[in-house]
Design the sequence.
């Protein structure tokens, strides 16, 4: 069966073996995201389909390095794709399942219909394959000069827990306004923009063709390789350390904002930069709360504020859910040039965060549906902690 392996190379020779395995065999590297970033003493998570399994395991055993993390990964994928719920009104379990793109679009329609006085769907642009990019605007009162926050999900197609969080967040905000003090304070003070799926073409592809697809689905002349890593395509140290190879998982595109999805989000944020004070982008996996910068080790000028907010969020997650989230500047954790959080920060949105949700690698991108609820609650706690902090400041 398909397997997910976790291997920590101890020597440079083992590093080279893993680089070779991840590039020469049909496998899917989860962590790090590119074979160039494999290094000694750092865990490598590798998805190995059944047809490569024997050759890969033989090679690893020959070098005395093997550790199975998750067997029967294909069964897990099959279970998650059995989506029998198409009606958003079918009870609370709707938010404890993963949903295909069409269901998310119908949920957007239903939500704007059911809460027509407080929720608007804004078409911010469309994808390479001409799918609409809808952001929901939650606005519970008409106070003048109101500030706002932005949350986007699903920039990387295979990170299914991310769109699941965006849906769950909107549901919580609308259901508990005037009941939960924190969400009430946030919505009284701020408008909230939520983009549930920033990469609809890639997300659709994960449901129909390749569950572990990461990039968007754009085509370019001169190559058969498809897609750009949208989180390397923003104009923040673009191209410095990302890949210029169209076949790479971290291909940065031909120029900053070359992709319609990136450009749509960037245009919207540019035109609302005076009101949007908090930017949050939701990813998985590794349980981290990160802030700029992700492409250099320079420190942002409001480092102490960002650190205090991330620490507060991590402390609250630990307090209520006994789960550990690391926090800090992205550049110390995962060097990602061209990322949306750094770009938003440079635009002037000084509170800018990347959330890496559950888990730490046991299931990785295949987090079971039984864990969606808890993962979303942890992230909700983090978002509320940071948003209340921003309002205070």
Sequence:
């Amino acid at each position: 069966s398909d397997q997910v392996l976790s291997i920590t190379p101890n020597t440079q020779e083992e590093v080279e073996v893993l680089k070779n395995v991840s590039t020469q065999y049909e496998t899917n590297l989860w962590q790090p995201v590119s074979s160039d970033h494999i290094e000694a003493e750092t865990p490598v998570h590798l998805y190995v389909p059944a047809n490569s399994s024997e050759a890969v395991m033989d090679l690893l055993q020959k070098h005395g390095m093997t550790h199975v993390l998750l067997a029967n990964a294909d069964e897990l994928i099959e279970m998650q794709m059995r989506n029998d719920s198409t009606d958003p009104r079918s009870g609370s379990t709707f938010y404890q399942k993963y949903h295909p793109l069409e269901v998310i679009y119908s949920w957007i329609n239903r939500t704007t219909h059911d809460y027509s006085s407080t929720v608007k769907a804004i078409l911010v642009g469309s994808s390479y394959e001409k799918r609409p990019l809808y952001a929901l605007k939650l606005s519970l009162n008409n106070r003048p000069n109101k500030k706002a926050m932005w949350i986007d999900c699903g920039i990387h197609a295979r990170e299914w827990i991310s769109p699941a969080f965006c849906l769950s967040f909107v549901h919580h905000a609308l259901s508990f306004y005037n009941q939960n003090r924190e969400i009430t304070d946030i919505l009284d003070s701020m408008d909230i923009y939520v983009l549930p799926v920033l990469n609809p073409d890639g997300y659709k592809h994960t449901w129909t063709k390749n569950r572990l697809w990461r990039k968007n689905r754009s085509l370019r002349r001169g190559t058969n390789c498809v897609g750009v890593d949208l989180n390397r395509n923003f104009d923040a140290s673009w191209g410095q350390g990302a890949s210029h190879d169209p076949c790479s998982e971290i291909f940065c595109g031909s120029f900053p904002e070359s992709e319609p999805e990136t450009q749509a989000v960037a245009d919207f944020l540019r035109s609302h930069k005076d009101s949007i004070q908090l930017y949050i982008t939701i990813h998985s996996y590794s349980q981290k709360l990160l802030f700029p910068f992700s492409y250099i080790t320079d420190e942002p000028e409001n480092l102490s504020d960002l650190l205090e907010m991330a620490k507060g969020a991590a402390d609250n997650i630990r307090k209520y859910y006994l789960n550990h989230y690391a926090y800090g500047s992205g550049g110390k954790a995962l060097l990602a040039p061209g990322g949306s959080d750094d770009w938003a920060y440079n635009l002037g949105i000084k509170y800018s965060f990347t959330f890496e949700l559950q888990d730490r690698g046991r299931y990785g991108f295949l987090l079971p549906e039984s864990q969606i609820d808890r993962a979303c609650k942890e992230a909700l706690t983090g978002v509320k902690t940071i948003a209340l902090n921003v309002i205070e400041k």
